[in-house]
Each structure stands twice: as C-alpha cells, then as structure tokens.
Amino acid sequence: MKINWSGFSKKTYPERLELLKDSIILSQELQEGLEKNENLSVQIADQLSENVLGTFSLPYSIVPEVLVNGQTYTVPYVTEEPSVVAAASFACKVISRAGGFTAQVHERQMIGQVALYQVPDREEARQVILSQKEELLKLANQAYPSIVKRGGGARDLRVEQFSGQTDFLVVYLHVDTQEAMGANMLNTMLEALKPRLENLSQGQSLMGILSNYATESLVTATCRIALRYLSPQNDQARELAEKIVLASHFAQADPYRAATHNKGIFNGIDALLIATGNDWRAIEAGAHAYASRDGLYRGLSLWTLDSEKEELIGEMTLPMPVATKGGSIGLNPRVVLSHELLGHPSAKELASIIVSMGLAQNFAALKALVGAGIQQGHMKLQAKSLALLAGAKEAEVPKLVEGLIAEKTFNLEKAKSILEILRS
Ligand code: NDP
C-alpha cells in the first residue's frame, strides 16, 4: 500500500500515530507499545548494564520514504538534535524523487587480531603461522561452531610485523559473522587461537580482540541528483551544485572542516544505529579510522558534478559492520519496532540504508551551508528547545518561538523575558 506521507511533519503527535496505525501493519504488541510509548524496562536494563538506577529516553522519530536500491523504507531515527530529522526528510525527498540511492556492500567480514611480542624470529614465525593457516582456521571455527552452522565462520588469516618501541607480530583473523556484529564471536575465536599462536611463534600473546577498523565490511552509497531538483532556475541550481562540490573538496583538504563534515554525516548514521540497537561507538571508531586511512583525516563523502548529464553525484564509502541479531537487539521494544518498521532488513540491507542516510544528511547540511546558511533553519528549531528550557507550557511554545524569531536573539535570557511578557 502506498502511504500518503504529505504533511506528516505538520501533524500533531496523535495524528502521526494515527497515520502510522492506518498505514503500517504492526503486531498488536508493537502497536500497543508504540501507543503507550513503551521503552526498555528497568528489569532488562538491569541485566544489560551495571549500577542501573533507571532508563534514559531520547526522541524517537521517522524519516519517511527513503529509496535505497529500488526499495522504499520508513527509517527510524533516534536523536535529540533539532533539525536533523527535518534535514534528513528534506534530503531523502529530493534524492528519492531523483531516483534514490544505490548502495553496494563490497564484503561483510569482521577482523580480529592477536598481538604477539618477544617473538625470537618474526619472519620465521610469520611463515610458520601461515603454513598452518588451515589448521588455525579450523581451530577458530571449533571455538564458535554455531556461526559455522549458520553459514559463516573463519575465512582467512594473515600476519604482519610492526617495529617500534616494542616489536610485534600481529595475526589477523577474518570472519563471516552473518547477521551479527561479531565482537563476542571474534573474541572467543581469538582466545582459542592464542595458545597455538604462542606455540608456533615461540612468543607471548598480549591480547586477542576484535578490531573496529572493519575494512572488510565496506559499504558505498551513491546518489545522482538532476540539477532541476535543486532549483527550478538553471543558474541557481548549477551554482548550488558547484558549491556543494567545493564544500566536499574543503572537507578533503582541512581536518578542521572534515571533523564537522563527518559529524553531520553521523547525525544520520548514529540516529539509525541507536534506533536499531547497534553499537554506535564501534561504527564511529571504524569510520574515523577509515577517514584517516591515507594519513590525513578527511571528509567521508565526495560530491562531483556531471556537467554533460547535468547531475550532482554524491558518493560515500565507509565500514558499516552492523547487526540485525545479537547484542541488545531484541531486548529493547523500541529496537524491535525499528526493525519492524524497516521491514526486517538483512544486515547487508541495513548497512546500505544506514550509509545512504549518512549521505542524505551530508547533502542537506552542505546545501544549507553553501546556500542560505545553516543558522536560519537551525535556530528556528533551536528556539523550540529554548522555549521549553525557559519553562514555557505546551500552549505557550509557538508564541514564544515566534517571539524569539522576531527578535532574532536565541538565548535563554531572551526566551525567559519574552515568556514573562507573554504571561503578563
Ligand atoms: P552476540 O554475542 O550477541 O552474538 C550474536 C548472537 O546472535 C549469538 O547468540 C547468535 O547465536 C545470535 N544469532 C542469531 N541469529 C544469527 C545469525 N543469523 N547470524 C549471526 N548470529 C545470530 O553479539 P556479537 O558477537 O555480534 O557482539 C556484539 C556485541 O558485542 C555488541 O553488544 C557490542 O556492543 C559488544 N562488544 C563490542 C566490542 C567492540 O566493538 N570492540 C567489544 C566487546 C563487545 P549463536 O550463538 O547461536 O550463533
């Protein structure tokens, strides 16, 4: 069924719930949970973490109609930052009209490492370990047989030497973790390899641990936006596209800009990682390492202009080893709802959607920055938070926001003084 999302952002909270109820069939449990705003229970939270005193909430939103590889998704977003959802919705509307995102999962394997030190002859040890590759892969798989039954398991092993304050011989294990992120799987396998590797190398093992630099889980998202979707006026559209290209060059050249450029990308990526119960610290660490892969920290996305076809092209590649099984997925009712809203994508599909959302968020940010500037739209939404902080009741918020916009001063003191005037 085609859902009519037009005007969704203008609807009230109960109207939005109603539209969702009429358009997306959820299980009775999930529907009731959504209506009651059911979150993680303290009992489950107490099992997940330590010293628990309660749970912590954040706004749960959706970005409707995101077209990735020909399929339309309703994308759940968890973020407290004003304007992020609005920007993503705007970008996805434009990009979906222009044909949507194309995403490619290059490979999906996780890498773990065992660091060996005090190895008497590192080159000889390297060769001995490589000569036993098949036996070592078998040993790793025996340590976690259930992933082999699911069609995954250890796939490859390589060895590298590092010289420095301490000389290391590092053994890398590549594992197909199927639908899981694989941290615990990898760690279990690596623990099992440690004694044998010590024996083969005649050295000591320092640690065996998953690496978050998931270079074997790269995902590329691209989009091609015909210039007419940027502005009805040809000149303006071309100028905007050219400036977006320049903005992406700026983020390639200057790490100060690259950090902020990538933060904007993660506004989208983290919102979806959190909503789907994924480890956002793991993905952030891997992506920032990838952004520095040639020695300089750079922007993750690149925009180019196809002058012949009159299209602005966005492209972004980063490691995205996300999971649809394992960890806390399945324990948090909100996370269960997210997977349901997305139509239960596989880990590869989910990774494709997430990288596409990062690119969408980047497009919206760059368009705003090189166009009207980010402050205008941003401050309007920020005014809402200021109104609430100043103590405005729900009915007072719109008038107070109007007042702040009219005064063009966005601070708490101003918000309080306008509220006082409104009340008197
Ligand atoms: P789990 O330890 O939860 O393992 C995955 C679970 O999913 C297993 O119980 C597995 O069952 C089950 N499963 C069900 N269906 C599938 C399927 N189709 N494919 C794969 N597994 C399936 O999670 P991970 O090993 O993925 O580890 C992720 C967790 O580790 C996250 O919570 C993360 O925060 C945390 N972590 C992260 C670290 C890092 O990033 N450096 C370090 C340490 C922890 P079965 O066992 O029967 O196969």
List keywords for this structure.
424 residues, alpha+beta, 3-hydroxy-3-methylglutaryl-coenzyme A Reductase, Chain A, domain 2, Alpha-Beta Plaits, Helicase, Ruva Protein, domain 3, 3 domains, four-stranded antiparallel β-sheet, 10 strands, 19% strand, globular, binds NADPH dihydro-nicotinamide-adenine-dinucleotide phosphate
Description:
The chain has a four-stranded antiparallel beta sheet. Strands 5-6-4-7 form a four-stranded antiparallel beta sheet. A two-stranded antiparallel ribbon has the order 1-2. By secondary structure, it is α+β, with helices and mostly antiparallel strands. It has 16 helices and ten strands. About 40% of the residues are buried. It is globular, with a radius of gyration of 25 Å. It folds into three domains: about 55-100 and about 220-370, 3-hydroxy-3-methylglutaryl-coenzyme A Reductase, Chain A, domain 2, CATH 3.90.770; about 110-210, Hydroxymethylglutaryl-CoA reductase, class I/II, NAD/NADP-binding domain (Alpha-Beta Plaits, 2-Layer Sandwich); about 375-424, Helicase, Ruva Protein, domain 3 (Orthogonal Bundle), CATH 1.10.8. The protein is about 50% helix and about 20% strand. The longest helix has 24 residues, at about 345-370. The site of NADPH dihydro-nicotinamide-adenine-dinucleotide phosphate has 19 residues, from helix 7 and helix 8.
